[in-house]
Amino acid sequence: MEYTSTRDNSLSVSSAMAIKTGLAPDGGLFVPKSLPRIFGEELSELSQLSYTDRTVKILEKFLTDFTGAELSDCAHSAYNKEKFETDEIAPLYKLTSGVYFLELWHGPTCAFKDMALQILPHLLKKSVVKTGETKEVVILVATSGDTGKAALEGFKDVDGTRIIVFYPEKGVSNMQKRQMVTQEGNNVDVAAVMGNFDDAQSGVKKIFGDKEYAQILERNNFMLSSANSINWGRLVPQIVYYFSAYCNLLKNDEIKLGDPVNFVVPTGNFGNILAAYYAKEMGLPVGRLICASNENNVLTDFIRTGVYDKNRPFKTTGSPSMDILISSNLERLLYQVTGKDDGQVASWMQQLSESGRYEVTEAVKAKIGEVFYGGFCDDAQTQKTISEVHQAYGYVMDTHTAVAKCVYDQYKKETGDETKTVIVSTASPFKFSDRVLAAVAGEEALARLDDFALLETLAEKGDLAIPAPLAGLNTKPIIFNTTCEKSEMYEVVSHMLNLS
Ligand SMILES: *Cc1c(COP(=O)(O)O)cnc(C)c1O
User: Fold this and answer.
1) What residue ranges line ligand 1, CB within 6 angstroms?
2) pLDDT by residue (tens digit) across 456-466?
3) 113 tagged catalytic
4) pLDDT band at residue 189 under the 50/70/90 scheme
C-alpha cells in the first residue's frame, strides 16, 4: 500500500518511508491511498486471536512493505508480559450492561500512549533499514505530558536512534514531570520549555520544517523523525484496539456480529479518535464517535459549527494531556471527508497557520456531524463525575477518562441513544492522583501529602494497587534539569547532539 500527503495527492511513498520521515515534505500528513476492509467473518476470526496477533493481522493490511514475520516480531516485542501488566493488553471493564471502559493504560508509563509508542520504535528501526538509510534517527518530541514519557520508554537504548523530548514547563503534572526527568537510557534527552504545549509543539514543528537546519543535521549524520501522533507509525497501532474492543465484546457475548458500538474518546490532538474513525471506515460496526474535550473545547465548537478557531484563551486544566488548541490529526479527517481534496486541505491549513481559523463547507460539516458528536466539560464536572462513578460502582477513573464519561452522560441525555458504548480510558488514576483523590475523598484528603503519599492514600481510598512504574519513582535520581525559552529550542537540540 502506498501513502500520500494530505496536502499533495501527487506524492507517493511506501509505509516504511512514511514512518521514517514522520511528516510529508509539504508539511502535510501521510495518509494511506486507500483503506483496507475488515468485516464479517474476518472480524469473528480476529476475535479468536490474542491482542498481539490481532495487531499483526491489522498492520499487515497497512504496512504491506513489511513481512508478516517482521510485523510479528514488532508486535511481540511491544505487547508482552514484561511491558504490560495484563495478558489482555487492552482489557474491557464492564460498568453496566451497556457501558464499558477500554483500559489502555496497563503499559510501562500508565497511559494510552504506550499502546502506540511501545511498537513505533520497532517499526521505525525496520523502516530505516528498509529505506537504505544510514544516518542516525533523531526523534524530536513535543509533549503535553504522556507522550514524552511513553516515547522515552519506547526508544530508550534502541540502536540507531536518539530521542529528545520538550515538555511545557507549565502544563504537565508533577508525576508526569518526575517520570520524564528521571528517565534512564544512553540515547535520551529531556528539556522543559517556558510556555504551554502549543509553544513546545510549534517550536518542534519549526525545527522539522527548517531546510537549512536539516542540512546541518545531515552533515553531522543525523536525520529528524517524529514520534508525535502525526506519525503514521503511531496512528496505525491505535486502530487495533478499536477492533480488539469490538472482538472482546463479541467474544464475551455482549454483542452479536454486526451490532453497532459507540466509542467515546477523550480527545486532544485528535489522534486517538481518528484511529476510531479509520476503524469505522474499514468496516468495523461503529455507531457514533463521541469526541470529548475539556474546557479547551475547540473541537466541540468545530463539530457543532464547522468553524475551527484557536483564537481563544488557553486553559490549564486537570486533564492536561487534552490541553491543546491545535489538533494536528484533524487534518487527516478533513482529507477523508472532503474526498481527498488536497488543495482544499492545504488551503484550510494555511488559513489556520496565518489567522488561527478556518471554516469548512456545509457539506463537510454535515458529513462530520453524521459520525461525530462533540461535547466538553469543565474541571468541576470532571471531579463530580469521578466521585459519582466511584460511589455508584466503586470504579476509579482518571481525569481524562472522566471527561469522556461526563460527555457521554450529556450525549445520552440529549439523544436517548441506547447503543452499547465503549468509553476509552486513557490513563491510570494514579497518574493524576491529586485530582482523583480530591474527587474520591475530598480536597481535605490532600492536605500535607507529597506526591508519593498521595499515591498511597489513593490506593487505600480507592482500594487499588499502585502501578509498579509509579511506585518506584520516588527513589530514582533526577537526571535532567534543562529549561529553555521557546526561541532557544534550536540551541538545545544542537547542544544535545553536539553538532558542529
Ligand atoms: C494524549 C492523551 C489524550 C488525548 O489523545 P489524542 O490522541 O491527543 O487526542 C487523552 N488522554 C490522555 C491520558 C492522553 O495521554
Assistant:
1) 111-113, 146, 229, 266-272, 321-322, 400, 426-427
2) 999 999 999 99
3) yes
4) very high
Residue 461 lies in a domain: no
pLDDT at 489 over 90: yes
| Average of per-residue pLDDT values in the chain | 95
Query: In terms of residue numbers, what domain contains 352?
Result: 92-112+233-431
**Nearest by Cα to 240 from 422, 93, 52, 105:** 52
Distance 212 CA to ligand 1 centre (A): 33
CA distance 75 to 72: 5
Q: 10: CA distance to ligand 1 center in Å?
A: 32
- Report which of residues 21 and 13 the model is more confident about: 13
Does residue 135 form part of some domain?
Answer: no
What pLDDT is stored for residue 174 in this prediction? 80
Choosing from 113, 205, 412, 431, the catalytic residue is: 113
What type of residue is 461?
K
State the average pLDDT over residues 338-359: 98
Residue 379's CATH number: 3.40.50.1100
Say whether pLDDT at 311 is over 90.
yes
CB atoms within 10 A of CB 341: 16
Q: Map residue 278 onto helix, strand or coil.
A: helix
What are the cell numbers at 466?
Answer: 499502585
> What spacing in Å lies between the alpha carbon of 319 and ligand 1's midpoint?
9
Confidence of residue 172 (pLDDT cuts 50, 70, 90): confident
Mean pLDDT score, 392-419 = 98
Rounded CA gap, 86 and 147, in Å?
Answer: 21
Residue 209, pLDDT score: 85
Contact 224, 207 (CB under 8 A): yes
Cell of 158: 534502541
Which ligand 1 atom sits nearest the alpha carbon of residue 146?
15
Distance 269 CA to ligand 1 centre (A): 7
The tally of domains found in the chain comes to 1
Side chain identity, residue 497: L
Helical spans, DSSP H, in 372-467: 379-393, 399-415, 433-441, 451-462
Q: What is the mean pLDDT of residues 180-202?
A: 93
Instruction: Tell me if 387 is assigned to some domain.
Output: yes
Q: Report the C-alpha gap between 15 and 432 in whole angstroms.
A: 36
Measure the CA–CA gap between 233 and 415, rounded to whole angstroms: 36
The answer to whether residue 187 sits within a structural domain is: no
* 213 and 103 Cβ atoms separated by less than 8 Å: no
What average pLDDT does the segment 279-290 reach?
A: 98
The number of beta carbons lying within 10 Å of the beta carbon of residue 328 is: 20
Q: CA 160 to CA 163: how far, in whole Å?
A: 10
Closest approach atom of ligand 1 to CA 272: 7
Q: Which amino acid is at 381?
A: Q
- Tell me how far apart the alpha carbons of residues 93 and 101 are, in angstroms, rounded to a whole number: 5
> Given this model, what pLDDT does residue 43 score?
96
Give, in order, the Cα–Cα distances in Å from 233 to each of 59, 163, 308, 379. 10, 16, 26, 33
* Whether the model pTM is above 0.90: yes
